[in-house]
Amino acid sequence: MPELQLKHVSKKYSSVEVIHDLNLEVEQGEFVVLVGASGCGKSTLLRMIAGLEDITEGEVIIDAKPANDLHPRQRGISMVFQSYALYPHMTVRENIGFGLKLEKQPKAEIARVVNEIAETLQLVPYLERRPGQLSGGQKQRVAIGRALARKPRIILFDEPLSNLDAKLRVEMRAELTQFHHAHDITTIYVTHDQVEAMTMADRIAVMNGGRIEQYDTPLNIYNRPANKFVAEFIGSPQMNVFAVRHLADGRLSAGGVRLLPPEALRTRANDCAFLGIRPDQLRLAGPESGDTTATVKTLEHMGSEAFLRLQLPGGALITAKTQGPDAPGLGTSVGVGFNWPAVHLFAKNETRIECPHI
Ligand SMILES: Nc1ncnc2c1ncn2[C@@H]1O[C@H](COP(=O)(O)OP(=O)(O)O)[C@@H](O)[C@H]1O
Ligand SMILES: [Mg+2]
Q1: How many Å lie between the centroid of ligand 1 and the Cα of residue 45?
Q2: Residue 54's pLDDT band (cuts 50, 70, 90)
Q3: What separation in Å is there between the alpha carbon of 100 and the centre of ligand 1?
Q4: Ligand 1 atom nearest 192 alpha carbon
Q5: Are 38 and 221 in contact (CB under 8 A)?
Q6: Cβ contacts of residue 14 below 8 Å, gap of 6+?
Q7: Which of 39, 58, 197, 210 is the one with CA 20 to 30 A from 33?
Q8: Handedness of CA 222, 226, 231, 234 (dihedral sign)
Q9: Which CATH class is domain 4-225?
Q10: Which CATH class is domain 240-353?
Q11: Where are the domains of the chain?
Q12: What share of the chain is helix, strand, coil (3-state, %, to 5)?
């Protein structure tokens, strides 16, 4: 039985529906990431799970029991917010123990739990400090500590790393993942950052406009995106996607270029309306080779690799990624080969067309 189930859940604010007939199952101990652009309904969904927001329709089931009418405190769920929401006038010790104090737990028990959590989160030296005297990463840990003090069955994170600088974000990402592995608490983690989603999740739910577009492992989401939206959302630089026209001679016109897919792909390609290829699956070579020619318009050296914007003969721009030292110079003409087994095809309704492995 999954630890958490959402069944046909929707949410309306007055007459506006922001979550539409959504289903989700999370297993015990799983780390699930909800990822999507700002405004797609991630926080609303999390708050409905926590019980901080009413559900307009559908069911929330926690540990096999209907939870729609349970008070947040009865759900065994803790939530960590982006702002941390620490009490500035309380010490770290008091912040972590606050939930237990509200529950009127005995003082000795509160002290024991707070000390135990401070050990695991390496907060012992800071227990008597106030939040104002802590770094961003330490505040984050206190917020997690406070969430853990109540021994939740499920912990919810709403963009907890968004306020941190890039270096700290990477460190905290690793720390949170390690922490999850050590404690095995069912986790639902909201972010708009696809790198966090890819690196932290057991499963990712890609959200768009109040719906889940795909719910799968990070590698399946990357390698077999269910539709054009997911294909373009996950992956950096973004996948190149072209609308396709089918020409009489069996070729495809994509991005203003005539392409001839290999034999094995041709039947499937007949049904496709969009063709996608990731920047690292384009092979750059001499101008006479490959599937088309292109001109290098911009070049960004990242060190070990380089990102190029290439202009196709019809004017369309595509992104390619190469090993840094191999990047052709600005303004040069190159041949661009498609690694056809890595091409993604999408039907007119934008869903994935599975292709035979070439
Ligand atoms: N209290 C509210 N009243 C009305 N609309 C809201 C309220 N909270 C959120 N919304 C709307 O619901 C949608 C989803 O918001 P939210 O869940 O905060 O998105 P996300 O967390 O993905 O950025 C947005 O269009 C937002 O404007
Ligand atoms: Mg939000």
Answers
A1: 10
A2: very high
A3: 31
A4: 22
A5: no
A6: none
A7: 58
A8: negative
A9: alpha beta
A10: mainly beta
A11: 4-225, 240-353
A12: 30, 35, 35
